[in-house]
Amino acid sequence: MATKLSFTFQFPLEKSSKSFQRNPNLALSDPNHCDGFGFSKKSSGFRGQLSLKENALQGEVTQSTNSETTLLSPTSLPSSSKLVLVVGGTGGVGQLVVAALLKRNIKSRLLLRDPEKAVSLFGNQDEEKLQIFKGDTRNPADLDPSMFEGVTHVICCTGTTAFPSKRWDGDNTPERVDWEGVRNLISALPLSLKRVVLVSSVGVTKFNELPWSIMNLFGVLKYKKKGEDFLRESGLPFTIIRAGRLTDGPYTSYDLNTLLQATAGQRRAVVIGQGDKLVGEVSRLVVAEACIQALDIEFTEGKIYEINSVEGEGPGTDPEKWQQLFKTPQT
């Protein structure tokens, strides 16, 4: 049975006095200290090499002349009527999704096996901004309809390692997580949702071919593809983001303030493809941003995209640039 947990959360940034009302005002700051995702340029952005600025809790917002966007202040950000359910919100990509949603003042709900992880990562948040439900997608009985009440969008970034590791402890295998867990979640979701974004992997259509068959020795690509197919056939409005090899992080031992300072380093340019032809790496920050951007781009509904990141200037958090990237994928 799913359990809703109440925490007395205090977000370290000032909360808007008008919840969920769009505010067009943006405060401007110096663009030279942040990368395109609003994170500090001072760090290398790989495997937790991060820097913290003294005023990190005062994160300000900029849209610079070179199209880089810095930290957005919740008092100046447009609020949202969305309620986004994030599944896998304490994982390598999921925690960055949650941090970005909080930064945007988008109300979020997390479905977690261990809610205490949310407190350690995101701090004490107001329940109007972040709600926590205890549940395990591998157990259908945990997915009570009450946890989906009011939810408008879902981002699912659950996953485990391709090869046996400590993360497999407790029956956390690709079959249980990437197939059975995804199937159980999709089966429980209401058809009223506006979008379901599923994070998957490049190579899922070629798991019997070299070199993908090596990665698929324990079935991770096969089970991810089964999860994709179940979503495609569910009748739910979906977008599937197939990520290349993930880099930058995971930042699983840090807190929200550190997450907001994470950076993609020089790999900020984004390459989007279709047809499962892309081969390469992608920053977890880029994957997280792609998931959030896809929620509002109507023509991404019913589509599957592959995503990599390369050296160069990227779209940051600019919706128009992301629309153009999704509109003209490599095929």
TrEMBL record:
<feature type="domain" description="NAD(P)-binding">
    <location>
        <begin position="88"/>
        <end position="296"/>
    </location>
</feature>
<dbReference type="Pfam" id="PF13460">
    <property type="entry name" value="NAD_binding_10"/>
</dbReference>
<dbReference type="InterPro" id="IPR036291">
    <property type="entry name" value="NAD(P)-bd_dom_sf"/>
</dbReference>
<dbReference type="InterPro" id="IPR016040">
    <property type="entry name" value="NAD(P)-bd_dom"/>
</dbReference>
<protein>
    <recommendedName>
        <fullName>NAD(P)-binding domain-containing protein</fullName>
    </recommendedName>
</protein>
